[in-house]
Amino acid sequence: MAGLSRRTFLGAAGAAGLGTVVGAQLAAAAPGCPRDAGATAYVGSYTSTPPAGHGLDVVSRTGTALTPVRTVSSVPDASWFDRSLDGHTLYVTNEGDPDGAISALDVRDAENPNLLGSVSSKGSAPTHLSVHSSQKYVLAANYGSGSVVVLPILDGGELGPATDLQQHVGAERDAHAHQVVNDPTGRWVLSVDLGAASVYVYTLDTGTGKLALHQQVTLPSGAGPRHLAFHPDGRYAYLAQELRPEITVLSWDAAAGKLTPLAVVPAVPAGATGDLFPGEIVVSKDAKFVYATVRGPNTLATFTVTGGGTGLKLVSSVDTGGNWPRHLALPADERWFYVANQRSGTVTWLPRDPATGLPGAVAGSLAVPSVNSVFFA
To answer: CB–CB of 71/40 below 8 Å?
Structure first.
C-alpha cells in the first residue's frame, strides 16, 4: 500500500499458522452446517494482506461460540460494518489502496447476504463507516487519503455517488481519518483523524448531503486519536489514542456542538513497556464500564466510569488470547466479549460478569486469517 498504510504502519502481520487451516475450512463451510437460529455475525478480514483473509464471512453464534456459515464473494478487504435501521442493508468498507470502495448488501436473510453493489469512497483505504441517523447517507473515513466522504442511500439500500468529500490536513503528519460517526442527537458528525491529531465536528445538511466544518479539536502531538465512543447520556465521550496507551475523556455539548478534553487516563498498568497501541473502545449500556483493546501486550482493559462520566479508572487488564487485538464487540446481551486478533488470525471470546463488568478467561476461538472486526446483526 502506498504511503502510510494503517496495516503496515505498526508492523507487518505475522503468520497465521493454525488460523490459516481452520480459516480455509470456514471459507468452504457448507450452507447446511449446524448452527443456532439466534444471532448472526459478520467477520471482516484483509484479502490483500498475507496471510490472505476471506473478506466477509458469515458466522452464527451457537451458545457462546461462533460457528462458520459461509464466505461472501466479491467483498474484498472488508474492515468495518454498519447496518440500516430497518435491518435490511449491511454496509461494508473495502479498504483498498489507492482505490477504496463501500459495498452494500441485502441482509434481510441474515445468513445469506446478497451484494447490491459497490461505489467509490473517493479516497484510499476506507477504514470506518457509519449510517447517519437520518438513514439518508453513509459516512466513511478514508484513512489513506485523510478524508471523509458522504454517500447517499438510494431506494433499495444501494449507494449513489458521493455528495461531498472533506479533506483533512495534518500539521506534523499526513492526515489519516480513522472514524466518522454522528453524535447521539444526530445533529452533528464527528470524524477522528489519527494523523492530524484532531477530532473534526461537522454539520450535515441532510437535504444536500454536504458537510460544513464547525469545530476542530486538536489533541497533543503524537497522541494518534483513533476511535471515540459516547457515554449513553450523550454528554461525554471517550477517545482511544493509538500512538499512546491512553484514553482521553471529553465533554460533549450537543447544543453548541462543542467537544472539550477533560482528562487523560492510562490504558495500561504503570510500568508497562514495549509496543502499547490501543485499538477499539466500547462503553457498556449501563454506563458503568468502558473497555479498550491494547495491541502489544494483547490485553482487554476495563475501566470503571467515575464522576457521572467525567472520569475513568483502569481496574483490569486481561489477555485476549490472541495477537494484536484490533477490534472488540459486545453483543446486545453484553455477556461476552468477542475480540478480533489480527496477527494470530483468531476471534476469541471471553465471558463478562454483568455485576462487576470484568472479563474472564478466554473460553474459545475461531480462526480467520488477517481478521480485523466482528459485527453482530
So the answer is: no
Neighbours of 241 (CB within 10 A): 25
In a domain, 320, yes or no: no
Instruction: Name the helix (H) or strand (E) containing 25.
Output: helix 18-27
Position of cell 460478569? 353
Is residue 81 a part of any domain in this protein? yes
SS3 letters across the chain: CCCCCCCCCCCCCCCCCHHHHHHHHHHCCCCCCCCCCCCEEEEEECCCCCCCCCCEEEEEEECCEEEEEEEECCCCCEEEEEECCCCCEEEEEECCCCCCEEEEEECCCCCCCEEEEEEECCCCCEEEEEECCCCCEEEEEECCCCEEEEEEECHHHCECCCCEEEECCCCCCCCCEEEEEECCCCCEEEEEECCCCEEEEEEEECCCCEEEEEEEEECCCCCCEEEEEECCCCCEEEEEECCCCEEEEEEEECCCCEEEEEEEEECCCCCCCCCCEEEEEEECCCCCEEEEEEECCCEEEEEEEEHHHCEEEEEEEEECCCCCEEEEECCCCCCEEEEEECCCCEEEEEEECCCCCCECCCCEEEECCCEEEEEEC
Q: How many structural domains comprise the chain? A: 1
For 74-112, the pLDDT digits (tens) are 999 999 999 999 999 999 999 999 999 999 999 999 999
For residue 97, the one-letter residue type is: D
Distance of alpha carbon 185 from alpha carbon 215, whole angstroms: 17
Q: What pLDDT digit, counting tens, does each position of 236-266 carry?
A: 999 999 999 999 999 999 999 999 999 999 9
DSSP conformational letter for 13: P
Range of the domain at 139: 74-218
CB 143, CB 202: distance < 8 Å: no
CATH number for position 146: 2.130.10.10
Query: Considering the domain boundaries, does residue 248 fall inside one?
Result: no
Is residue 130 situated within a structural domain? yes
